[in-house]
Amino acid sequence: MYETFDSDKRKLLSALSHGAIFFSGTVISVGVPIAILLVSDDPVVKDNAKEAINFHLNVWLYEAILGFLLFISLGLLFPLAGIWFLWHWGLTIWAIITCLGNPDQSFRYPFIFRLL
CA 53, 115, 63: angle at the middle one, nearest 5? Predict the structure, then answer.
């Protein structure tokens, strides 16, 4: 009655969903978790893909706000960009490590808005 899912495949797809944010300079990067969401049958992988899509949207929103603040401050708030960079990449690395370490539970990013 219960379906079993391949743990290695779950790890790979979940980590790939979250890792796609490293290519967030291209809008195509959100296509990776969207494709995984549409193709996968695994509920944990689907949850991780949704969370990765939400994180992409949050990253883009916060980058737009930060870019605007940098523009109007004539770059005086540039240290804020470094903090943002560390936060953005740090959370992504944390998500990947968590997915690889505990493949049976989906990762939830703190401090983000969830649209999906």
Answer: 60
pTM: 0.91
pLDDT value at position 54?
96
How confident is residue 23, by pLDDT bands cut at 50, 70 and 90? Answer: confident
Sign of the alpha-carbon dihedral angle for 54, 91, 30, 36? negative
Asked if 92 contacts 22 with a C-beta cutoff of 8 angstroms, the reply is yes
Residue of 52, 41, 43 lying closest to 15 (CA atoms): 52
Q: Which ranges constitute the DSSP H helices of the chain?
A: 7-19, 31-39, 43-72, 78-101
Question: CA 9 to CA 42: how far, in whole Å?
Answer: 10
d(CA 77, CA 79): 6
Half-sphere exposure of 67 (CA within 13 A, CB side): 6
**How is residue 35 written in tokens?**
């494709």
Please give the Cα distance from 30 to 28 (Å, whole number): 5
